[in-house]
Amino acid sequence: MTQIQIGTSDVYTTRLGLGTNKVGGTSRAGVDQEQSGREVVRTALDSGIQLLDTAYMYGQGRSEAVIGEVLKDYDRSKVVIATKAAHDPKHDMQPNNDPAFLTQSVDDALTRLQTDYIDIFYIHFPDATTPKAEAVGALAKLKQAGKIRAIGVSNFSLAQIKEANVDGDIDVVEDHYSLIHRAPEGEEMAYLKAHHISFVPYFPLASGLLTGKYGAADRARFARFVEGAQFDAALQGVAVLRDVAAAHGASVTQTALAWYLAAPGVDVMIPGARNAEQVRGIVGTLDVQLTAAEFQAIDQAFKQF
Ligand SMILES: NC(=O)c1ccc[n+]([C@@H]2O[C@H](COP(=O)([O-])OP(=O)(O)OC[C@H]3O[C@@H](n4cnc5c(N)ncnc54)[C@H](OP(=O)(O)O)[C@@H]3O)[C@@H](O)[C@H]2O)c1
């Protein structure tokens, strides 16, 4: 798999990564995700995926811990660990960007991951009070100390990203972006490109809606993404994805992911998987090369978002 540089850091990774919010802990449906999570991570690494996107919030440390256990069987230098923190368990999980809290969070993550460095560390959410430059300043010190290799922010508005990047320390931004949530296109992506900051979208499959396996009966399940006529428009867009997928003998999931890999503002993809079979499906994306006309057809089908 081809590699790209994260911002101006010395971190290089494959463009296809793995989202691990379904690794470790217990799902909302009460399913223990530890065993399947180990298999998901192993399958990804065995398939050549390098970047694992995790966070303290995923199972309150369990996703990181499962990754740490699995990594004992792999060459650490070939894996890119991206993790995040901000939710403060002592304050009802409210975001905390205080330098002392972030510094402690990095140390705690290192312990759970059983490693001595984190490749990419993101501030998971902004808080309301800490000056952004102070929060990022703490991460810059951790980078100098070798505990983290690249600095990221997630869920920051463009104004907050600019404030955080006042000293040019931000390497990567992770934000909600998909074919049905295209807000970062335009000003945000232009700023990131101009400042050599990588972009990693989350929810690329809109939690499953863009895989083609859900239909009209699943309206309520995706209400947090699209409602009313927007849901119908999303399904119409999925129908276009299905046509393009058929032309390639590919799945709808692979076709959607192939679109992002061809999209100008996207650097690394981190689709989430519930089991090893889904990981194998995701990896198959690399065999799908969209033509310019197919890219445009998909782009147009979701233009209204
Ligand atoms: N920074 C942040 O604040 C933030 C927020 C959210 C997520 N994230 C990150 O982004 C990652 C991706 O988000 P996500 O996992 O929530 O959503 P997603 O990637 O949009 O969708 C994942 C879902 O797509 C379906 N899927 C995946 N591969 C499939 C395949 N091959 N065939 C059929 N269906 C497939 C599964 O749905 P089913 O479960 O229905 O089978 C899976 O749960 C997360 O894992 C996490 O690392 C970050």
UniProtKB/TrEMBL annotation:
The keyword Cell division does not apply. Signal peptide: none annotated. It comes from the Bacteria. GO terms for molecular function: oxidoreductase activity. One of its GO terms (cellular component) is cytosol. Residues 15-301 form the NADP-dependent oxidoreductase domain. Pfam families: Aldo_ket_red (PF00248). Keywords: Oxidoreductase. PANTHER family: NAD(P)-LINKED OXIDOREDUCTASE SUPERFAMILY PROTEIN, NADH-SPECIFIC METHYLGLYOXAL REDUCTASE-RELATED. This is Dehydrogenase. It comes from Lacticaseibacillus nasuensis JCM 17158.
